[in-house]
Every structure is written in C-alpha cells, then in structure tokens.
Amino acid sequence: MTKRKARLGGASGLFACAATALVMLSPAGAADFWIDTIKDPLPEKLSWKGITVYGVIDVNYTWQSKGQPFDDALYPGTIYGLLGAPGAHKAYWGFAQSGLSQSSVGVKIEEPLGEGWSVVGKFDTGFNPLSLELSDACASLSNNSGTSLRQQTANVDGSRCGQALNGSAFAGISNANYGTLTFGRQNAFNLDSVIAYDPMGASYAFSFIGMVGVTAGMGSTEAARWDNSIRYTYNFGAFHAGAMYAFGAEDTAIHADAYGLNVGGKWQGLSVDAVFAQENSVVNAGRLATYQKNALAATITDNTSASIMGKYTFNLGGGLKDAPGDKLTVYGGYQYTVLSNPDDPLTGYHTTIGGYRLASINNQAYQTDRILNLVFAGAKYEMPSGWSFAAGWYHFSQNSWVSNANGKCSSSASSNCSGDYDQVSFMVDYAINKHLDVYSGIGYTAGSDGLVAGYLSDSDTYVVTGMRLKF
C-alpha cells in the first residue's frame, strides 16, 4: 500500500509540474517569465557557399504510468506510448530525449552549376544526447535478447541502427524546369508524408506514427529510409509527382527491391499527398530468445501500401494590417498496408542495416495476409508570438491472419489475432526564438487483443516536458 501511494504521489507530482510549466508558459504568464529574456546566440544559419550545417538537440523529462527503463542505444531512450513495449508494467520517470525531433547533425548542399542546374545533397546522422551515442534501435533489440520482459530496457526496431549516416545520405542534380534526381539513402515517400501531415510533426513523444515506424516504413519500420535508392521528383504548377526505386542489398532493410509513387498538390490552404509503395523481402527485426552479440531475429515480408494524407490551413488574422496572424491547421490521413510472405525468401547468412546479423529468419509468418489500417486526425493552432497548441488522435488496427503457428482469432491469446490500438495526445510549444523552444504535453494509449498479445499492460498515460535547440 505504501509503495503504491508513493508511485501515485510521483505521478501526481509530475502532473503538477507539467501543469505549472504550462501556466508559466501560457501567454498570460509569459510576459514576466524569464524565457522571454533569452537572446538568440546563434546566427540565422551556418552556411558557407552552398553548404549549410544544421542540427537538433532535444532533451526532456518524462513520467509514464507504464514504462521501461532508459536504454542508451535507443534514439528516444524510452518508448513513448505502449505499442512496441511489451515489458512496460510499472511507473517510470526520468530523463529522455528526442521528444519532438530526432537529435541529429548534418549538412545540406545546394550549389549552382549554371543554366538553372544545381548540385544538391543531404548527409546527416541521429545521435542520443544523453548517452552521446549514435542512434541505434537494433542495438536496443540485440542487447535485450534473452532477457525476460520485466527486466528489459526500452527496445524496438527502427531505421537508425548505428550507421555513421543513419539519417539521409544522398546527392544529385536539380533543375526547376526538369525536376530533381538523387541517389543514395533517402526518405521513403511515406516518411515525407508523415512529417508533412502529422499534427504532431512526427514527434516520438506525442505521435503514434512518429514513434511507431510501420506507417513511415509502409509496414516495416526499417524501411522508412531506402538505401541504394534512386528518386525523381517534379513540380508542375500547384502539383508535384515523384517516383522512387531501391536496389536491394545486404546491410539494408530491403533485400530484393522496392518502388514507390507519389502525387500531390497544393491549392490555397489545402495540401494533399497520395503514396503507393511495394517493398520486397523486407527485414522486420526482433529480439532473439538467447543473446548473441550484434545479432537479431527477423521476419521477412513483402509489403504493399497505399496512403492519402492532407491538411488545410485557415489564416485567422488577429494581428496588425500586413502582419502575420494566427493560423489553424487541420490534419487527417489514412493508410492501408498488406504484409505477406516474401516471393524471394532469405536463406543462409544475411545482414540488415547497421551490419547486424540475422541469426534467426522467419520467411513463413503469414500463411494469409496481415492487413494493417491506420486513420488519424488532429489540429494545430499557431500564434505569431511563438505559441502553438496541437492535438492528435490515431487509430491503428490489424486483421486476424493465419500464421505458421496459429489460426485466426480475436483475442489477446496470440499476436496474429485481430486487434486495435488508439492514441490521443495534446501538446503546447513555445518558441523562445528561432532556434530554441520548450514544450510540454500528455498522451494516452490503449490496445486490445492481438496488438497487445503477450504484453504486461494494455494502456499507458504519460507526460513529457522538454526543450529543443535547432541550428
């Protein structure tokens, strides 16, 4: 009884701290608050000729009603929400990272060549500011292999696995009349859509589609970024279109090939994008039953996915004539994804991103197709003073499919049973200046049946308060 009261006290205390922070950061309280006196020490941008250095450092403090201990390798450090955290079973509070944005550093290149042509490129890597390690989701899985759920630190699969350049690494040429052609490691089209149309901006802390990469990766989180890919995009008036192809290889998430198409447009306050993608022989990594250094289990799938996402911005005015006014943006999206057994199964020795060895490979997980549905909606209110308020709702579901071990079902008896998962979240952000902002928010997640099969909990409430530096 005493221990439970202590936990509740810690939870209520953090809620009180968050509430106090929101009051202090409210427009009414900000006039006399110290943050308004902070001067911006950074230049407008760090550029030399056509090269610009950029980066983000994002740290926070979090309380979770059901969480797992901090993991040095995992890029958020913790798992915000429940899906992907089967071992979460008790209250957790502590420092975490990358709540709003992935902490990273990189360079952008845009150097004119003449006649309207330019060389373009982008090279960046994600890091963990609290452990000073490169972001490595695969290490979080490998290090927890052979560990019981109750003893595990936070661990989940991801597209950043300790590579020297675990974000983008591409270069190419661009022309306003002919489009842009690039080659290398690049965002899948759906990752770009998530960043553009998620009301929470693909935040790890407050967005289901930011924290859980199956949406950005079209069924497989490692495939949110395509290695060895060629991408062409073209703008024509208010419309744009693109095509993308990935050559499968070892040390990548895609071992056969993949292709994607994107069409979209903007009209007044409306913006819409549709994406279709086919990914073949994709790695879905997991923990091994017993620990092996730098090794993982893997389920191999072929993924087919289609999505449509959009937003509409209302300019509400409220400022002086010709001065910027308040903005309200409403967001929404839907994605349909089918996972099936690979036409080209993996046998023998194989590796995935980061060079991790696939020590146990399952090519027969789906005797019938696994179907995923995602729908989300939300809104964001922005003020010229630097204040913004955002709310989001996410619903994720799967059908019941026949696995290589179990038949169809609709309970929590097995992970192949049908299931549902919901997340709602609310966040307040205040931009102190162009480079520094502070944020605080709350989220609630709940799952049912197959999506939480084997989990120690089926719901989680959490609070996150943090600070982000951008340059």
In the CATH hierarchy, the architecture is Beta Barrel
Numbering strands along the chain, what is their spatial order in the largest sheet? 2-4-5-7-8-9-10-11-12-13-14-16-17-18-19-20
What is the CATH domain class? Mainly Beta
Uncertain residue segments: 1-24, 28-33
Mean residue pLDDT:
92
Helix content: under 10%
| Largest sheet entry | 16 strands, antiparallel, barrel
Give the termini distance in whole angstroms. Answer: 48 Å
Tell me the number of structural domains. Answer: 1
Number of helices: 5
User: What structural class do you assign from the helix and strand content?
Assistant: mainly beta
Please compute the radius of gyration using only Cα atoms: 22 Å
Question: CATH superfamily, please?
Answer: Porin
Shape: globular
Write down the secondary-structure element order: HHEEEEEEHEEHHEEEEEEEEEEEE
Q: In percent, how much strand structure appears in the residues?
A: over 45%
CATH topology: Porin
Organism: Rhodomicrobium udaipurense
GO biological process, one term: monoatomic ion transport
Keywords: Cell outer membrane, Ion transport, Membrane, Porin, Signal, Transmembrane, Transmembrane beta strand, Transport
Pfam families: Porin_4 (PF13609)
